[in-house]
Design brief:
SH3 type barrels; 287 residues; 24% strand
């Protein structure tokens, strides 16, 4: 097996340095989140660990994240900021919005409405306004054409800071994607090699997350603006969804919004509304 090359990512490196963070780019590692969590107490806000070869990545609910070497981006970003518990709950959504923007920037037609094809069980009802190709799925996925291109995982470090991890499918070909509901930037139409795409996505993501975090810290209209943008980018709102809850129960409901605590609000069949903070959510169809 050939030894992987250490990614240089010059634009991302300079963006992180300009923000006062440290930038580590190992050629290969088990988990960028684990690496950053281990040293978080000694690293400044905005520090990053990034690789194109992650061998033991994890997603939400302790799921394995499949990451073909050289074709995926694993990035972890340290957030050390004066956030209250409510705003901490918004971090996965804020990160999803930041990645939505970063992905949009590398897709030449990302502002076009979504193409007709989408995964089985996700059919658009007649008369609904077409939506952009790139959307956030509550609480932590980014979708292109209805398929997952990125997952987000936030973990709290020993000193109370938060490591925001992101895994992005860069150049995986269609016939090698891990599931039928996944996609990659290349499949979605992005051009360029994995390193160039990683550099563009990582730099855009870093800038957008730090700007959003600063707005949350500032509070008032700035924080409200971030939450409004998240809601506007959330493709879950308005859909029929299937929720698997931590107690093992499963419910189908209409997703009606995101409340001030970052919870998805759902309307049950009996018309009752409630907020859900944690759950495994699947898009079914539009409500």
């Amino acid at each position: 097996m050939s030894t992987p090359e250490q990614p240089t990512l010059p634009l991302a490196r300079s963006v992180v340095a300009a923000a006062g963070g440290t930038f580590d780019a190992p050629a290969r590692t088990g988990s960028t989140n684990a690496d950053l969590l281990a040293v978080a107490v000694d690293r400044p806000h905005g520090s990053v660990v990034v690789t194109l070869d992650q061998t033991a990545g994890r997603g939400r609910l302790d799921r394995t994240w499949s990451a073909p070497a050289g074709q995926t981006l694993a990035l972890s970003l340290l957030v050390r900021a004066d956030l209250d518990d409510r705003d901490r709950g918004w971090l996965p959504l804020v990160a999803g919005l930041a990645m939505r923007d970063a992905v949009t920037a590398v897709l030449p037609d990302a502002d076009d409405v979504r193409r007709a094809s989408r995964p089985t069980g996700d059919q658009e009802t007649a008369g609904r306004t077409p939506e952009p190709r790139v959307l956030v799925k509550w609480p932590n996925d980014v979708l292109v054409d209805g398929r997952k291109v990125c997952g987000i995982l936030c973990q709290v470090a020993a000193d109370g800071s938060v490591v925001v991890g992101a895994g992005v499918n860069l150049t995986i070909p269609a016939d090698a994607l891990p599931t039928p509901t996944a996609t990659s930037l290349t499949v979605a139409g992005a051009t360029g090699g994995a390193a160039d795409l990683a550099d563009a996505v990582a730099s855009g993501f870093h800038t957008a997350v730090l700007e959003a975090v600063a707005a949350l810290v500032a509070g008032g209209a700035a924080a409200d603006g971030v939450r409004s943008r998240v809601r506007g980018a959330c493709g879950t709102i308005g859909r029929r969804v299937r929720l698997e809850l931590p107690d093992g129960s499963v419910t189908e409901a209409d997703a009606t919004g995101v409340d001030d605590d970052g919870r998805i609000t759902i309307r049950d069949r009996d018309g009752a509304e409630r907020g859900v903070a944690v759950g495994d959510l699947t898009h079914l169809r539009y409500a």
